[in-house]
């Protein structure tokens, strides 16, 4: 591993492209409840893998014993990671206990279930599924004994994420022709458009005041189309700030202190200041 330095608690190391596996494609970073680790998934020629990068720059495996694992989401107490688990061609929601290393299904179904998001009290997990023909949002108890369907629109509803106070679920919907950011109550009531802009992969800040997403601001640039970037919605004001250093960015995840956002660009993992300032790449190998 090449030379590196500690920057704001994360070891940032820059390596030439040839030093990394050519098949490496990082996605879905998720900051732990503490500032110590960022979980992420990456695709290789051998399938999906889960890893976490720690504050000292070391990378550890969070991989279940078998199958492909993507879309990690830390439990509120940091003791478990929910993820999308693919085995034998079927995707399910599973939970990995970090202490025991054991994995169990939570929302096993012949349909495709994906994109888990823990409720703040750790008792439920929101996810999206095509189990009732369309792509909709569901909630399952962590024990897996109760599943509730929250959306029924014919358009695709995806990418749920729970607000820190547990009172709202943000999600993406194509019911207006393109993927846009919506909000609803945890029982599926009061579904409403949050901002009229292209949006994917939303994530709430820990204070509940902002939502980061990958997309475009509501007002297009008069000089021409902008590439997809990381944007931040002020929930109360309804305003969107596009982080200019994040062109082509995807999969944002807030740091616990709200000062930074982890995200990916073309399969590489980055961290940017929440105001769009300093940007750095996190080297993983």
Q: What does this molecule look like?
A:
With 285 residues, the chain is mainly beta. The protein has a single domain (4-281), classed as Neuraminidase (6 Propeller). 0% of the residues lie in helices and 53% in strands. The strands form 6 sheets. Strands 15-16-17-18-19-20-21 form a 7-stranded antiparallel sheet, with no helix packed on it. The model is unreliable at 1-23 (pLDDT under 50).
Please name the CATH architecture: 6 Propeller
- Topology pattern, helix = H, strand = E: EEEEEEEEEEEEEEEEEEEEEEEEE
Round the mean pLDDT to the nearest integer and report it: 86
- CATH topology description: Neuraminidase
Task: Tell me the distance between the termini.
Answer: 7 Å
CATH superfamily: TolB, C-terminal domain
Strand order of the largest sheet: 15-16-17-18-19-20-21
Helix content: under 10%
Counted beta strands? 25
Total number of helices: 0
Uncertain parts: 1-23
Largest sheet: 7 strands, antiparallel
Give the total of domains.
1
Q: Kindly provide the name of the CATH class.
A: Mainly Beta
The share of residues in extended strands comes to over 45%
Oligomer: single chain
Structural class: mainly beta
Name the overall outline: globular
As a whole number of angstroms, the C-alpha radius of gyration is 18 Å
Protein topology:
Elements (H helix, E strand, L loop, with lengths): L3 E4 L2 E4 L11 E7 L5 E8 L2 E8 L4 E3 L6 E7 L5 E8 L2 E8 L5 E3 L7 E6 L5 E9 L1 E8 L5 E3 L7 E6 L6 E5 L6 E5 L7 E13 L5 E6 L13 E6 L4 E4 L6 E6 L5 E6 L2 E6 L5 E3 L4
Antiparallel strand pairs: 1-2, 3-4, 4-5, 5-6, 7-8, 8-9, 9-10, 11-12, 12-13, 13-14, 15-16, 16-17, 17-18, 18-19, 19-20, 20-21, 22-23, 23-24, 24-25
């Amino acid at each position: 591993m090449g030379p590196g330095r500690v920057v704001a608690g994360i070891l940032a190391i820059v390596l030439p492209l040839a030093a990394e596996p050519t098949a490496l494609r990082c996605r879905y970073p998720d900051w732990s409840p503490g500032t110590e680790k960022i979980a992420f998934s990456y695709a290789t020629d051998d399938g999906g893998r889960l890893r976490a990068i720690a504050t000292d720059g070391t990378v550890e495996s969070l991989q279940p014993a078998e199958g492909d694992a993507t879309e990690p989401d830390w439990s509120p107490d940091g003791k478990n990671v929910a993820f999308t688990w693919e085995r034998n061609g079927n995707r399910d929601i599973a939970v990995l206990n970090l202490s025991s290393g054991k994995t169990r299904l939570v929302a096993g179904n012949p349909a495709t279930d994906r994109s888990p998001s823990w409720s703040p009290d750790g008792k439920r997990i929101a996810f999206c599924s095509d189990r009732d023909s369309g792509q909709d949002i569901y909630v399952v108890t962590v024990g897996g004994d109760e599943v509730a369907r929250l959306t029924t629109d014919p358009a695709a509803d995806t990418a749920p994420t729970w607000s820190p106070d547990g009172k709202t679920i943000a999600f993406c919907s194509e019911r207006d022709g393109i993927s846009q950011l919506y909000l609803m109550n945890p029982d599926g009531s009061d579904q409403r458009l949050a901002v009229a802009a292209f949006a994917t992969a939303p994530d709430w800040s820990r204070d509940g005041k902002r939502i980061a997403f990958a997309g475009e601001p509501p007002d297009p640039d008069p000089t021409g189309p902008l590439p997809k970037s990381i944007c931040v919605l002020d929930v109360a004001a309804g305003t969107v700030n596009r982080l200019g250093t994040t062109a082509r960015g995807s999969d944002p995840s807030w740091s616990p202190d709200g000062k930074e956002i982890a995200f990916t660009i073309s399969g590489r993992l980055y961290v940017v200041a929440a105001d769009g300032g300093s940007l750095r790449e996190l080297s993983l190998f």
